[in-house]
From TrEMBL:
Cofactor: binding comment: Binds 1 divalent metal cation per subunit.
Amino acids binding substrate: R100, N102
Location of the SMP-30/Gluconolactonase/LRE-like region domain: 15-258
Entry keyword annotation includes Transcription: no
Regions crossing the membrane: none
Annotated keywords: Metal-binding, Zinc
Protein name, entry field: Regucalcin (RC)
Length: 292
């Protein structure tokens, strides 16, 4: 396997997640969920800026010009990057105060897909929702525990999804027009020694890059054969998510966490909670924007 070099961005997050490449701004965004921090890093200048929100901040997506879509607790909001105005647009599971959003993506038709979990990680408490132009969340899957990574194939025929504790990447047939999904097969089964699959993204060859929580890195999986193709080794155990970005969409931004590590482990792995940039030999896709 290839040896990858990384550049670290010392953000020291408790639970960094939600990496996102904003092509117009040529910058990476990510969040520190429990602390409500939104980070923006410019690879060109090397500058990193932080904005704080008084909520658990789980997801960064993109809407209209200068607008981000943020997942805050169990609500979605528009955030204007110039005026700093926050506008609530949708909410789910108000009856469950212990629930929050987790991972989210925008599909090729411009709809948001976003999952929930219980902050007590109660088994089968979470769901996956689709939010279209009408801002009405429609439940797609339920009985989930940690709704996580998502990706669509370039031909828009397949949707890949991770419910972390299952240690499986599932493939669903996907109907672009309606957004309807139907379970087809288990594409990848993760062996116990590789930790738990967390966030993921897809490259232009159709391979899945998956962050492995407890697995010290990001693994490239072939979803047609279920085989492990490559691994980016990192000096931290809890790797949470990844996305392609950079000028040529060939740089992987990888988020990590300090949570669930003892004081001794934090001394042993001091870069836990930092974010890493790794140049790859493949390219990803530009992120879709939410249409509303």
């Amino acid at each position: 396997m290839k040896t990858y070099n990384y550049t670290s961005i010392p953000s020291q997050c408790f639970l960094a997640e939600g990496p996102y490449w904003h092509s117009d701004r040529q910058s990476f965004f990510w969040v520190d969920i429990e602390n409500g921090n939104l980070f923006e890093h410019s690879p060109k200048s090397g500058d990193t800026n932080t904005i704080n929100f008084p909520h658990r901040l789980t997801v960064v997506l993109e809407g209209k010009e200068n607008e981000l879509i943020l997942g805050l607790d169990c609500k979605l909001a528009k955030y204007h990057l110039e005026s700093k105005e926050l506008t609530w647009i949708a909410e789910v599971e108000q009856e469950f105060p212990l629930h929050r959003f987790n991972d989210g993506k925008v599909d090729p038709k411009g709809r948001i897909w976003i999952g929930t979990l219980s902050t007590l990680f109660t088994e089968s408490a979470g769901s996956l929702y689709r939010v279209g132009k009408d801002l009405k969340p429609v439940k797609q899957l339920d009985q989930l525990t940690i709704s996580n990574g998502m990706a669509w194939t370039e031909d828009n025929q397949t949707f890949y999804f991770i419910d972390t504790p299952t240690r499986e990447i599932k493939a669903f047939s996907f109907d672009l027009e309606s957004g309807y999904i139907r379970f087809e097969r288990i594409a990848v089964e993760i062996p116990e020694e590789l930790g738990f699959p967390d966030g993921m993204c897809i490259d232009q060859e159709g391979m899945l890059w998956v962050a492995h929580y407890g697995g010290f890195g990001v693994i490239r999986w072939d979803p047609t054969t279920g085989e492990m193709i490559d691994k980016i080794e990192l000096p931290v155990p809890h790797v949470t998510s990844c996305c392609f970005g950079g000028e040529n969409l060939d740089t992987l931004l990888i988020t990590t966490a300090q949570e669930n590590l003892s004081e001794q482990q934090l001394l042993e792995y001091p870069m836990s909670g930092d974010v890493f940039m790794v140049k790859t030999n493949t390219r990803g896709f530009e992120a879709n924007k939410y249409h509303y």
